[in-house]
Amino acid sequence: MMPQQKLEPIFGQNIPKSCVTLDVTIPEEEVTDLFAWLDEIPLSRPRKNIHRDFSDGVLFAEIVHYFFPDKINMNSYTSINGTKFKLQQWDILIQKVLKKRFNFDIGKDVLDKIVHFQPGAIEVTLSEFRKKMKQILWMKLKHNPYFNPGCNFKSLGLCPKEIYNSSPSDFTGCYDSQKIFTALGRNEIMKFTPQEYQDVINELEKKLNALEESMEFKDKTIEKLESRIRVLNEVIATGNHKHEFIDQKRERLKIKNLNK
């Protein structure tokens, strides 16, 4: 019996280790899809020759930063020439970011092919890291339905329905009505038990009550503000009348003094 793969904590989750080796291959249609995915990511330079573009590790680091900006410091990576310096930069990326934060490693034989522009190596590495990011997102959403991955993750093609395709009972204890009705289809919702229906209804009623209380509070606030405005207008009007009365008195005194 094969021993189970050891799991290590990543982002508060347990993500299995993975390592890119020369044994890994990807079909041609997946490569085409990979290129289309890369073109959706705003890299610092456009993709021309993928084997040369990614040889120094900078663009790979930019992909990590695009999806996980808090997990990598881009100041550590610059465009460089020379096999020795490229390997050093890749080693920093692998040791400090990929292995430490993602349990993701790149074999030395694969890395050697990447820095020497050999076809196939970077394609496999990008494809495997893309799968790793999907795995992390899947586990975070499965663990916490309220987790908001952000708009950048849309390009991974991982939708809520793909995550919650098991059983409606997975939502027990963490009902979010909007997430349920967008993530699950009508047929899946129809499979809810009476208790699950009641839980959803209770959640909706809570939201409705909260909205009503909020609207009532806003109405009262508006009434108070309108009342203050009326008082201020009255004060201003009274003040204007006082000024007019004083001005009239001054004019009368002037006329009286002139007549003397």
UniProtKB/TrEMBL annotation:
Q: Name one Pfam family in it.
A: CH_2
Keywords of the record, alphabetical order, are: Coiled coil
SUPFAM superfamilies in UniProt: Calponin-homology domain, CH-domain (SSF47576)
Using the record for this protein, list the coiled-coil segments as residue ranges, or answer none: 194-235
Checking Gene3D superfamilies in the record gives: Calponin-like domain
Q: What GO molecular function terms would the record report?
A: microtubule binding
User: Does the record carry Coiled coil as a key word?
Assistant: yes
One annotated GO biological process: regulation of cytoskeleton organization
| Residue stretches making up the Calponin-homology (CH) domain | 28-144
Q: Under which name does UniProt file this protein?
A: Calponin-homology (CH) domain-containing protein
* Provenance organism: Argulus foliaceus
**Which lineage do the record's taxonomy fields give for this organism?**
Eukaryota, Metazoa, Ecdysozoa, Arthropoda, Crustacea
